[in-house]
Structure formats: C-alpha cells, structure tokens
Amino acid sequence: ETLACEPGEVYIMNVMVSGHPYWIPVYQGFKQAAEAFGCDTIFSGTPDYDITKQIASFEQDLVKSPAGVLLHPMQADPFIEPINRAIENGTEIVTFAADSPNSNRTGYITSDNLAEAKFAAEEFVKALGEDFEFAVLENPGQSNHDLRVTAFLDYMSAHYPDAKLVGRQATNQDSNAAYRATASIVQANPELDAMWIPEAGSAEGAVAAILEAKADVMVMHADVTPTTLEHIKAGNIHAALNPNQGMQGFMGFMATFMAAHSEVFDPFNDYKVSGYNPVQIPFVDNGFSVITKENAESFDLNAYMEGRDPS
Amino acid sequence: MTDDVILEISDLSKSFGPVRALRGVNFELRRGEIHALAGENGAGKSTLMNIIDGILQPDSGEIRLDGKPVRIASPAAAQTMGIGFVHQEIALCPDVSVAENIFMATTNASRALLMDYHSLTQRAHDVFAKLSDIDPSVLVRDLSISNQQLVEIAKALTLDCRVLILDEPTAALTETEAQVLFGIMRQLADRGISIIYISHRMVEIFDNCDRVSVFRDGRHVTTEIVADITPGDVVNAMVGRDLGDIYPEKQPLSEQSEQEVLRVVDLNETHRFHDVSFCLKQGEILGFAGLIGAGRSEIAKGVCALEGTVTGEVWLNGERLRLRDYQDSINAGMVYLSEDRKGDGVFLDMSIAANIAALKPEQVANRIGLIQADQEETQAAILGRKLNLKCASLGDPVSALSGGNQQKVALAKMLSVNPRLIFLDEPTRGVDVGAKVEIHRILRSLANEGVGIIVISSELPELLGVCDRVLVIHEGRIRGEVSGADMTENKIMHLASGTVPGVAATPHPAV
Amino acid sequence: MDNTLNMAETKQAEHAAPLFKRLIRMRETGLILIILALFVTMSFASPYFLTWVNVRAMTMAFAVEGIVVVGMTVLLISGGIDLSVGSVTALSMVIAGWLFLNGIDPWVASGLSILACTAIGAFMGFFTTRIGLHHFIVSLAVMVIARGACLLGTGGRPLGLYTLPPEFKFIGQGSIGPIPVVIIIFVVVVIAFDFMLRRTTMFRKVFYTGSNEKAAAYSGIRTKKVVFLTTTLCSALCGVAGIIYMARFGSAQPTFGLGMELNVIAAAVIGGASLNGGSGSIFGAILGAVLLSVVSSSLALLDVSVYWQDIIRGSILLTAVTIDHYLNKKRR
Amino acid sequence: MDNTLNMAETKQAEHAAPLFKRLIRMRETGLILIILALFVTMSFASPYFLTWVNVRAMTMAFAVEGIVVVGMTVLLISGGIDLSVGSVTALSMVIAGWLFLNGIDPWVASGLSILACTAIGAFMGFFTTRIGLHHFIVSLAVMVIARGACLLGTGGRPLGLYTLPPEFKFIGQGSIGPIPVVIIIFVVVVIAFDFMLRRTTMFRKVFYTGSNEKAAAYSGIRTKKVVFLTTTLCSALCGVAGIIYMARFGSAQPTFGLGMELNVIAAAVIGGASLNGGSGSIFGAILGAVLLSVVSSSLALLDVSVYWQDIIRGSILLTAVTIDHYLNKKRR
Ligand SMILES: Nc1ncnc2c1ncn2[C@@H]1O[C@H](COP(=O)(O)OP(=O)(O)OP(=O)(O)O)[C@@H](O)[C@H]1O
Ligand SMILES: Nc1ncnc2c1ncn2[C@@H]1O[C@H](COP(=O)(O)OP(=O)(O)OP(=O)(O)O)[C@@H](O)[C@H]1O
Ligand SMILES: [Mg+2]
Ligand SMILES: [Mg+2]
C-alpha cells in the first residue's frame, strides 16, 4: 500500500504579506509534492503585515478541517496557542522560514541564516583580505533578516577582528530609505569596501546610491528580485544568497504530510505513552543558492512562472 | 424709479422636508427701486433670496428675468445674470486677505492669468474710502465681526450687477456705517440698479426704501409703496396683530435701588481697554454704546474672564469674584451672549435642544450625570416658546433654522442657566420686531427680578428704548454716561465718536 | 403657533411607532443593513461562514483593536486625531513585557505600562492644547518616537513572555463559557463608552468642543482640558489594548501595529465620525471596524486570490460607504 | 482711530526695509532658520556633510517624493487629502513597466501610465465632489485598490526593467553638467507650481475654495470643479513621480511607497499647510520635506544607532515644529 491522500484531504500553506513574491516558488514546491501524493492544496494567509489578521486567517483555515497546515508564523509566541489548539483538533502544523519553537508544531523547515551569513563573510574576506571596511543595512523586528545581520556581525568580529564595521542603518526593505542611508554611509566612509544587506528591496536602493557615488563597494545580499538580478549580471552586485525556496516548500509539504500520516511510523521512543506525534522534525535546512553573474540566468522568477499556476 | 419689472417671481414654493419655507410666493422687482422685504423670523425671506441667487432650487414656480423665464442653477449663473448677494450669514474666506475676498468674484470671472495684487489692494482701498478704514491687506480672520460685515458689503458693491440683494446687512453695523451704506444704495438705485433690502429695523425701511413686501409663514402677504403706509401697518401685516409699544416701561426713578448687582473697578487689558469702572444697580438695565471696535465686547468678555488677561476687580452681588475662566463666571451666575452667533454662539450641526443645554448640561442630567433627553427637550421647549422660536423639531440641527431663530437659540442658551447677570452683545441681531418686543419684555422682567442686564447694541434706538442708563465707550475707555433725559442719540453719538471731551464717567465706587 | 403645532405632531409620531422610527433615524442603520447583507451573502457563499469558530475568529480579529477604535472615536469627536495608536499599543506591550522579564509582577507591570501610555497621551495633549500644534504632526512625531522606544527596549526582537502566569494569560486566551475573555472585555468597553458618550454630561462636552470649539469656550467649557483629556484617553486605551494583546500573544512585539492608525481612523469615519470633529458614535465606529474586518475575513475564507483581495476589499469599502451615504441622505 | 495709526506705521516700516521685512513676515522663514541651524550643526559634526556629493545625495533622496508633495499641498489647500499617493506612485511604475515589457515604447507607456493615474485621481474626485464622500475614506479605498492592482499586474514580483533604453533612463539616472536630471525636474516643478499657486488666478481659487467653500461658491467659483481638479492633479503628479522612480531604479516595484502618504502629508503640514484647507505653500512644503529628509540623512551620516534613530528623529521633528510655531507666533 502506498501513501496517498484520501479524497478531500487538503493541505494549506499559510503566510503573512501573501502578495510577496518570496512565497511563489515555495508554494510551487509545496504543490509539486502534494500532487505526487494526490493531495489538494490551498494558498492562504493575510495580505497585510499584521499578526492579528494572520492569526484570524489561520483560525479560519482550521474551519475547513485541513489535514495539515504549513505555516509561516509572523511571530513565534502569538502562534503557540492557535497552533496547539489546531493540533488538538486534528490538524498537523509544520512551520517554515520562521518558527514557533514553544508550540507543539511537529516540524520546522528553514534555510540556515547562520550559514548564509558565514558564507557572505568568507566571500568578502576571499576578495578583500582580512582588513577592510564594511557596512550593513538591516530590518529590525523581522526575525530572519535580523538573524542574517547579527550572525554576520558576530562571525566577522569573532574571526576577522581587523575588518571594521563603519555603518549600520535600518532601511526596512524600503529602497528609497536604503538609497538615502547608503548615500550617507558612502559619504561618511570613502574607504568603504563591502556591504551586506539582508534582503533585496534595500539592495536595490543601496546599489543605486553606490553607482551614483561611483564608489567601489562589493555588495552582497540575501534573496533576489529581477532588478538585483540584473545588477548581478551587470557586475554591480557581487552575489546574492537565495534560500532554496522550492526545497522549502517541497520539504514543508513532506513534513506536514508525514505528520498527518504518522501512523506508518512506529519509532523507538515514548510517543505512544506520552501521546505526541512521532514525526518530530526539529529542523530541516532547505539550503541556499549563490547567485552570481554565471548562473543568474536561471533565477528569473518570471521565466520560471511561465505556464505555471500561481495559486 | 421706473416701472419696468426686472425680476418677477410667481407661485414659487420650497420645502425643507416637512418645513414649507415658501408657499406659492409672488414677487416683483422694478428697475432702480429699493425694495424692502419684511417678515418674521423664518418667514422665508432668506430662502427666497437663496433661490434667486441659485444657491437653492425651488420645488415649483417660475422666475422671470427681463420677462424671460430663467433657471438659476448656481451662484455662478446668478452672477452672469447680474445678481449680487450680501448674505445674512457672513461668508468670507478667513485665510485670505480682505482685498482678495472683496474681489473674489471678479477674480473668478476675469480672464487674466495672473493676479495683480497691487491693483487689487488699490481698488480695495478705493472701495473702503467711502465705507471704512479697514486695511485691505490683513487677513479676514483677524477682523471683528462688524468689520467682516463691512467687507461683505464692500464685496457686493464691487459686483457689476443689476440686482443687488442685501440680507440684513446692518445687523452688526452702527448708525454711522449704516448711513454710509444707505447713501451708496441710493446712488446705485439712481444708476438703475435694483436693490432688495431685508431688514427688521422699520426705521431703515421707511427712511430708505421705495416699496416694501411683507412675508408671513412662507407666504407673500402684501406689497406696498412705503410712502403710503406706516410702520405699524407693516408690523401688523407681519405679525398679524398690533404690537403696541415696542419697548417696555423703564424703571421708575422712585424704585431705584441702591443695591448693587455688579461693580467693576479699574478693569484693564493691555491692548483692548483701560481703567474701566462702573456699577449696575438692582432692577436697572445698563447699556454699552460705542462705534465699531470701540471695545464694548472686549470689556464684557473681560469681566466674564472669557478672553484676554485682565486686571481689576469684579464684584457680583457684593461678593468679590476671582475668576480663573469663563466656567467660573457661569458658576457665579454671570454669562455673556456673543455677538457672533455663527462663529461662537451656536453649534450649527448639533440639535436645538443640545444647543440650549450647552451652558450647563448638568441641569438636564440626573444626579449621576446622565443627560435626560426628555428634560433636555422640555427645557428647550419652554425657552423656545418664551422666545417664539420657530422650528420643526427640537431635535433638528440649528443649521436648519433661519438666522433670527438661530439668534433665539443663542439667547435661550443664556437664559437656561437662570443667570444673576447677563451681558447681551447685540441680543436682537436679526430678530424680528415681534420677537424683539418679547425679548425686551423678558429683559425688563428679569431686571425686575433682580437679574443684572447689560446690553451692548449697535442699534441706538434699542439702547435708548431698553436701557435705564448707557455708558459710552470710545477707544477702550468709558467716555461718558447718559441717563434719563440726557439719553439722546445725539449725545451718545458725540461721545462715541470722541468729538465731545470725555465727561467724568461713573465716579469710582468707594471700595 | 406653527412651531408648537409641529412639535406636537412629531411627538405623536414618535409615540406611534417609536422603535421603528428611532431605528430608521439612527445614523448607524445604514451600516447595519450593509453588514447584514454581507453576512447573508457570505453564508450562501461559504458553508463555513456562520460557524461559531469562524465568527469567533472574526471577532477576535478586531476585538482588541476595537478598544483603540473607541479611544480614537472619542478623540475624533473632540476634533483631534492620533496617528501614534499603533506604536503606543506596541510600546505598551514592550514596557509591560520588559518590566515582567525584569521580575515585576505582571499585573503591576501592566498597570505601570498603561500609566506610561497615559503619560504619552498627556504629553501629546500638552503639545496640542498648550503649545497649539496640530494633532496630526504631534502624533506623527510621537508615533516615530514610540516606535523607536519599542526598538530600543527590545533590541528589535520580540520579547518572549510565555512564562506569564496563566491567570494573566487568561485575559487574552481564556474563555468564560464559550466566549473568549477578550470579546467580553471588548463588549464591556464598547457598551460603557457608547453609553457614556450618549448620556453623560462629561462626554457631551466632547461633542460641544468638537462641533465648534469657540462656541464651546463661549459656553464655559474648558475646551483645552477636554481635548487634553480625550487625547490622553485615546493613548490610555491603546495601553489597555497593548496589555490585552500581550496576554493574548504571550509576547511583546516591537513592530506590532504598523499602519493600525489608518485602519482605526477608517473604522471611526465609516461609522459616522467626522474628521472635523463634533460627530460620531462608538456604536457606529465599531460597526465600521466590523465591516472592515468581516470583508477581510470573508476574502480569506473564500480563498480569493491574493492578487485580487486588495482590489475587492477596496471596492467593497468604497461601495459600502457610498451606499451608507445615500441611505443617510434619504433618511434625513 | 487706533487702527489707522497702526496701518500707517506698518506702511512706513515696509518701505524702510522692504526685503528684510518681507522675509520676516514670510511663513517659511522659521523653517528656513531651523534648517539652516541643522545644516550648521551638521557641518561641524561631520566633515562630509557639506560636500557636493552628500548634498546631491540628500537632494536625490527627496526630489521625486517632492513632486508628490507638490500635488498633496495643492490638494490640502483646496481642503482635500489623499492617502493613496504611495500606491498610485507604485501603480504608475507598474503600469508603465508592464506596458514596456509588452513591447510598447517606454515614452508612450509612461504617457499612458500618467494618464491612468490621472484617471484614478478623477475617479476619486468624482466620489468626493459628486457623491460627497470624504477624501479620507475614498483615498483610503483607492490606496487599497491601487495596491491590489500593483500586485495583480506584477504577480507580486518586481518588474525588472533593465532593458529600458538609455535615453529613457537618463531621466532618472542622467545628469546635465553636475546636476542630476531628477533634481532639475524637481526644481522646475516646484518653482512652476509655487509661482502658479502664488500668482495665477486659477490657483488662487484653490485657496478660496479651501478657506471657505461656501464663500467661494457664493462668489461664483465652481468649487466642486476646483476640488475635482486638485484631486486629479495630485494623482497625476504621483504618476509623474512613478515614472521618474522607474527610470531611476530601472524596475517597477509593486510594494513601493508604503507609508509614503504620512511622510508627504507631514512635509506639507510642517511647511504650513492646514489640514482644514485654505492655507499652505509649495515652498514651505518642500522645506518640510527637506527638514524630514535632512534629519534622516544626518542620522545615517553620523552612524547613530538604529535603535536611537527613530527617537531622535521624532524628537527633532517635534522640536522643529514647536520652534517654528513660536517663531510664527512672534512674527504675527
Ligand atoms: N437648510 C434648511 N433645512 C431645513 N429648514 C430650513 C433650512 N433653511 C431654512 N429652513 C427653514 O425655512 C424657513 C424659512 O427660513 P428663512 O431662512 O428663509 O427665514 P427668514 O425669513 O430669512 O428669517 P430670518 O429673519 O430669521 O432670517 C424656516 O422655518 C427655516 O427653519
Ligand atoms: N482677536 C483679536 N485680536 C486683536 N485685536 C482684536 C481682537 N478682537 C478684537 N480686537 C480689537 O479690539 C478692539 C475692540 O473690539 P470689540 O469687538 O470689543 O469692539 P466693539 O466695541 O464690540 O465693536 P464691534 O463689536 O461693533 O466691532 C478693536 O479694535 C478690535 O479690532
Ligand atoms: Mg434670513
Ligand atoms: Mg462688539
């Protein structure tokens, strides 16, 4: 007997700011895995950056009694109670890209922000030596972006104390704010060699400012947009580190599906007595790609989505 | 005056919901005449004018201009037909200079691309040369209400119109300014311009107008040539009965009490008034006279701690008041009726009942501070009836009332707290003769009950008729005092304009 | 006389069909009809709509914000406006959370936090009434400052507060019978303020002040004090809302409430509050919040494509306001 | 008479030192002083501040938004307000970008996009003037709808427009001599509108309408038309700004301009525009934008900690507005 969905068995992927393009390839991976098992999927969440609305949409998902929800919780703790309630009522929950570690969710799929930060640091050192000036833009309050920056700074100060942090500005994914901040940083630090930016929106503005100032700065950032992709092709941006979104969605589905079909799994532990789901996956790393001039062509989301159904 | 009819209105009707403001009205205006409109508050005068100016559309009826039926769709359309209108309620742009306000319509109509501020100011100066000495470059928001009224008039005079409508233009003006206006009106009429003049002051109608039309309850009652009738006839037609004596009996000399209701000693305000001392005896009605901007309102507000930083002493019924603000004054029983009813007298978008309760909402509330709607209505109904307030429902917003009825609401608000002393600044502004008589009677009976009454009025006959004693204010100082036989228009005018050396004011009351 | 007659007539009519008449004359009737229509449509469109779980989720989605809507409505009526509600709410969570993590009893911490928010309101009240700046600009500056304080207090990372005692979490997560405590608090606050605003002399002065500040001053009302108090009240209610959010989420989020101000003001305005002051009602504002929230929730429930959701949401909002406008016009 | 005397005095003084007097009497003088003070402080604090490159960068940071500020100021003066500026600007980029990617000449695409934005403005104008809804609520709905249209047109993905021809990119990235084209366009727009608003009869009607709509209508001004046109103008200028942004960033971002409305309104208000209509100036509003932008840039230049920046920014804003208020009070 093979594992497959019953008719009407549905899996939901719930996110915040649901119009953001980041989710598109994730959902494609989610769907591809679901199709392989004959399952139905729904893309859900709130278009707003609003925790209350995301919780409401999550609770509304539960009205449909899905077998499982792959959830990107906007904040960790507010979701503890809703997640636990969902599991009690028979819907399995797996988190991705952001976690709710104190809840009873069975799995967590993410890219390793520490690994990204480490890679970026080593890449700078490879090109610039151990003694250079660098700046970061950041987005306080957004956990994964925060982690990318703090991990980078920690790594640099631990391993390359000679490199000097000369600018650190919050630009909150706003390209105009990033433009302004970068322009000022470049002014104040004519010797600036490198910049690390945790997301692509700010990178667009930062590159514009650097080009205008005709400064020689090595830029790396996480995530990617068509514009930064073009900048990579043109050599204005050294590289972008892009989480493997497809894998995130695909593994996300697998983890959710397995949690919902845990009856096939009978591990050597106390789950029967203690009554928890045996499919516990503390952490899956979906990996990341390094986008450079050479491979940029393959990261055109519009080309990828050609002929695919976004919903 | 010629006989050709320029504007003709027949069978015009207009309703506001259940209120039938105009019912089949007929009216005609001839070239070069000054045609007065008279009628009680709410008779429909302003409504008719608003229709002629295109602000309101009639429900039925016909308007003919030069014999041709017309539809006046908007004030802009009225303007192109040569109709100019000075509104009962001042409508000026407060953030804009006087000069620009005056020439707003001209600016609008002109094809010029750029503003010519210099010529604007120059022309405004010319207009004011006859009228007043307002600086055309100041912002309208910095003008007093009377000066704003003058701007309104100046605005109308610059219009190139054939029909000029003046809706109670003199309500806030003193005799002097009013006379200037009448002079200008006559010149215009002689040039063939037709003027519709609305006023509740019979004297003005009889001194300056050619014909008079009387309205009652939205109906046109009669149109007469002024020379053929008497003010009594007009009042009779308006009210439907004879009013008898317009002013109540004065306080007989014999009954004058020595008991002081109010005593003000050495009241000073750096910019507005100086060394003001006076007292008010029980049973007496005191008047403040003066020219526009003399400082009458400011003194009253100063006494009530309503505005400005004032030094000096105020004693009410023998007790020294130390007022932090107007709230304290109200609590002490001293209230001030504002001259600018639209600006600070009423809450236009709130109900009549709520307006009347505003001074002390606690009065219509139960012990734990909950407003009792029925008590609120009852209070409003009682006061409304007393003042002959005409309204569809006490729950209507004040904005739905005619000008004079709004004034009655403002007055009712003052009376609602049973004050010990009332300053009434232009109390009968825009109020019809019938109601005026009523208000004067109320004032007298309040005075007889021991309530202090101080009346500020630009209408000298009113001051003479109502007050037992009048203080004349000139440039922020008390210039003199008249009472008894001394109380004549002539004497007051001389004192007010400063052409007579100031006679000693009320001797300082010994403290 | 005409008026006495007319008045008598009105009185009579009122007695004839008092409830119906009063309903028709109510400002809020239009909104109620629109929301009812939405409910009926939705219950045909989705079998899940009228389930208890869904209704509960929808109510929970606006209940706490509803408390802020109450404060904003009172402030709008008095003629003010407050853009800082979102950050002050967040700051309330952050202060209370920070104090709690530093060993202070959560109830005491909450009290102190609400007090701090009240002080912020007083601060804004000072600048608007004493110095005479516009509410818009003062509250905008405070919005930025309070958000900065949130970041400073948390280092930009949410404070995890799952160690809050259960009796405290009960405020945000518990239920009495089937009804969540949050909803109970919300309903109590709404009813209390709606009643006070309609009936007490104290709040009547808020209407006078907002309707015509000068006339109010000329009626002896200490208008500056009134505006000062409404400004303070609004921030205090943000403080309360922040505490409830904290109990509900078990965390304090420095980025909470971004953009909340527009939502809250929109709710009040849809419900009949005038941005020029002088009119508005709590009941109406809450209906406005319900409308906004139900539309969002419905679109989520119907699985409408994200790319269409905003367009539909905006269009429904515009349509609803237009219909309400016409219904009110007729009624007058 | 007292006032005649005063008038004479004023007249005389005016002739004595006309320029100085006029400067002192200008509404904007206070702001200029504050900005100057900021500049002086900053040039001591950082040697990089007064370099051409930095000034250029600071100007670039607000130049395009400055065009939107112009539109908003005119709208505010006429008594309206527009919350949709951010999304309409984004939509302008998206429409033009989408058309360009579908093979239409970028200049034609830009023209069509500006036209579309103008139509959106006309749509809002219709709802506010003909139906009689409040600007706030209409523009809020349109803000949501336009944002939705951005998402729909792009699938939420920014459109990469790297292939835009260089002569088009020149608008956003080129320079004439040392001066960027963006700044030239900005300065021309500002000077043109400032002049028109001060001097042309057409724009004076905007002041009249905003100051007292009734009085303006009584003078024959078609106030609804005026408000309709200012609403349309504001959106049209958002369209222009969107095109310049597109040329500058070489991409169309559906999420661009979130929260722009508050910034833009704040600039206008700091510069003396009244939210009740009737007063304001382009020059002042631009000074407001300069103030906001220079503060941000300075904080970045001084590398102030992220966690302190908001607090300092808000405090400077509040202080500046307060000082400006007192300077204006004195001047009167
Ligand atoms: N906008 C309105 N809504 C409802 N009723 C109105 C409105 N405007 C006027 N009315 C009513 O129409 C009637 C006529 O009012 P109008 O203003 O024409 O009186 P008026 O003769 O000018 O009185 P006054 O001498 O007091 O100015 C009044 O009963 C008034 O209440
Ligand atoms: N807000 C104000 N700011 C500056 N001056 C004012 C203000 N209000 C009044 N004044 C001035 O104070 C003086 C006294 O004005 P007030 O209104 O008391 O005069 P009044 O005798 O009541 O005359 P009226 O009301 O008929 O104009 C005038 O010169 C007036 O211009
Ligand atoms: Mg009238
Ligand atoms: Mg006066």
UniProtKB/TrEMBL annotation, chain B:
| Gene Ontology molecular function, alphabetical | ATP binding; ATP hydrolysis activity
The ABC transporter domain is annotated at 7-242, 256-500
Q: Which SUPFAM superfamilies does the UniProt record give?
A: P-loop containing nucleoside triphosphate hydrolases
Q: Which PROSITE patterns match?
A: ABC_TRANSPORTER_1 (PS00211), ABC_TRANSPORTER_2 (PS50893)
Task: Tell me the compartments it is located in.
Answer: Cell inner membrane
InterPro entries, A to Z: AAA+_ATPase, ABC_carbohydrate_import_ATPase, ABC_transporter-like_ATP-bd, ABC_transporter-like_CS, P-loop_NTPase
How does the UniProt record describe the way this protein sits in the membrane? Answer: Peripheral membrane protein
Protein function: Part of the ABC transporter complex LsrABCD involved in autoinducer 2 (AI-2) import. Responsible for energy coupling to the transport system.
The annotated subunit structure for this chain is: The complex is composed of two ATP-binding proteins (LsrA), two transmembrane proteins (LsrC and LsrD) and a solute-binding protein (LsrB).
Q: What is this protein called?
A: Autoinducer 2 import ATP-binding protein LsrA
Which source organism does the UniProt entry give?
Tritonibacter horizontis
Automatic annotation (TrEMBL), chains C, D:
Q: Please give, as recorded in its UniProt entry, the membrane topology of this protein.
A: Multi-pass membrane protein
| GO CC field | plasma membrane
Keyword Transmembrane present in the record's keywords: the answer is yes
Superkingdom of source: Bacteria
Where in or outside the cell it occurs: the entry states: Cell membrane
Q: What is this protein called?
A: Ribose transport system permease protein RbsC
Which Pfam family, an example, fits this chain? Answer: BPD_transp_2
Xref: InterPro entries: ABC_transp_permease
Span-the-membrane segments of this chain are 30-50, 56-76, 83-101, 107-129, 136-156, 176-197, 226-249, 282-301
Protein source organism: Tritonibacter horizontis
Q: Name one GO molecular function term.
A: transmembrane transporter activity
Q: Which keywords label this protein?
A: Cell membrane, Membrane, Transmembrane, Transmembrane helix
Stored CDD domains: TM_PBP1_transp_AraH_like (cd06579)
